[in-house]
Amino acid sequence: MSAQPLPSNENDASITTIAPKEEAPTSVRKLPPPEKPSDVRRRSHVILSFWLIVLLLGLPIWWKTTTIYRADLPLEEMLEWADGKACRPVFPLRISIQATSLQDQEAQNLLRLTQHALDDLNDFAGHHLRLQLGDEKQDSADNGSALTIRLTQGEGTTAMLDPYEPILDITYPPNTIPSPTASSSALATYIASQLRTTFAEEQATISYLLSTNSMPSEHRPLGLSPETAESLAKRTTRSLKYAPTYHLTFSLFTSGSLPSSWDIEMAIEEYMKPVLDVLSPIHNFTIDTQVQLYASPGVQNQVLNKEDLSSFINAAEWPLSPSIGGAPTINFIVFVGNQTIASASQDAAPTSQSWLIPQWGTVYLLSLPGDTTHVTAATLKQPLLTFTTHLLSLTGTPESGSLPLRLSTLARIRSADLLLRASSTLGSLARLAMALPSISIPSSVADGVTKTMSHLRLACDNLGGTEGLAHARIAEAEAERAFFEKSMVGQLYFPDEHKIAVYLPLLGPVAVPLVMGLINEIKAWRKRRRERAENGAEKKEQ
Description:
Blueprint: H1 37-66, H2 75-82, E1 91-98, H3 104-121, E2 127-133, H4 140-143, E3 147-153, E4 158-161, E5 167-172, H5 186-198, H6 200-211, H7 226-238, E6 245-254, E7 261-262, H8 264-279, E8 284-292, E9 303-304, H9 306-309, E10 323-324, E11 327-336, E12 340-341, E13 354-357, E14 361-366, E15 374-375, H10 381-394, H11 403-435, H12 443-461, H13 466-483, H14 486-491, H15 496-541
Parallel strand pairs: 1-2, 1-3, 3-5, 6-8, 6-11, 7-15, 9-12, 11-14
Antiparallel strand pairs: 4-5, 10-11, 13-14
């Protein structure tokens, strides 16, 4: 049986071959048209112009308007003054010897032996006593000597210091005059010991000042005893800081309505004015007075103990001004009431009715009959004498010796104190300038430093005299003025963090586009340069 072909039918499924579809072409990123060389140059010129404006115009203006002016200061020399290397304080005191009863050769021999004895006793070369023969017709002020020794013959060897003149009277037996060939003399040793005793307090005070400041060891005297150092420390704490002018306030405070007036002007003129006059070469004084009725003290106890003295002043109600016209004020209070000081108090003797308040003034308790309406000058004699004594203590006047000698010693002590304080201020200013490089130093500060060092040099060369005190006073004032310059003090409280906080919000939005534009332009320039190099290499290969 032969195979028959299958009939064809249009409804029969037919096997067809499906041709694969052609893949769609991948999408290609359309590149921007190439920039024209003129556009590239224009963009580069725009970016360059912005940066030229910033560099050539903006930066100079910013630098000019924000640069802190710093005047040149001699920092090394200032530190030398502060360290005590620029000046060696020396106080050469001239002592005049009047020996009219001796022959010239005998007087010269006694002076020579006394000078040798003084040099052997002196352990502080900075305080040197130089002896010279004086004329009987000249006083200490005329020959420039700090003290005059008057030698007279007598039965024994005695010494007495004149209470009103800088004169030391020494009597000696005739047999104590040294021979021309003698190498020592009892009279010379006695005179030297009396001079050393007379100036012992001054030498100790100057030694204390130098030891408490940054003075090189070779310039310092030998150490003081603990008792002497403690006594000088208390005196320094008690006395006021030096000032050219002090304001004296005299106050009458009463617990009731009487007394209501007092002869304070007459009492000051009679009992206190002489001391103010002799202090005038060192300090000036201004005076005012006041009367306060119904003034209740801070302590109501009738008998005041040691603990009550510190709270007696009623600062809340009493009109006491701390300073007038910039000058430190010294208060002298006369309180009329029924209070008394207990005899057991260590701050006053059993019969004393006053006490001194360190760096402030004095309070005097005055007992009067209840019907007293007016306080006379005679009644104020004892209070004014007490105020005068305490004024000398508050101004740092030495306690031993005659008053003229104490005042001349005060001038030398103040000269040393002012010189050391001015030198210390210069050192502080130099260290401040080096520690803060961004601090402003105006030209006025440099001028003040120059004046300070000039007057310091003059003061150092003339220590021991009124001229040295005047120069030391000017140097200290100029140093303080330079250190506390207002424009400098303001810079101390403007740290660098504040500058960042100011500049960042202002310059950030401007700097970012400029920097990014410059970076992109540099990248484009490097790309064009690389393409030109590749094209050049292909042309060479062809």
